[in-house]
UniProtKB/TrEMBL annotation:
Residues 59-79 are annotated as: Disordered. It comes from the Bacteria. It comes from Streptomyces atroolivaceus. This is Uncharacterized protein. The chain crosses the membrane at residues 36-58. The lineage of its organism: Bacteria, Bacillati, Actinomycetota, Actinomycetes, Kitasatosporales. Keywords: Membrane, Transmembrane, Transmembrane helix.
Amino acid sequence: MFRRRESVPFSFVAEADRFRSNVTPPPRQRASRSQLAGRSLVGLTLIAGFAGSLLFGLPALDTDRTPSHSQTSEASRHR
């Protein structure tokens, strides 16, 4: 298959698809214990926040319950 070359104003852009580096990147450093503990605490905090919002939010979304007290103003009661 032949690719049609289009004119590119800069030669390094045209040669970029042919260039392959022989330099390997340095290996990634492992996370320390304090970094792992911090990440796990952030994760646990997020999970606890979601669980708490569900725990306190679901009763407010319940439509089957009727309120035990009626919310009428005092002026409408003495009509």
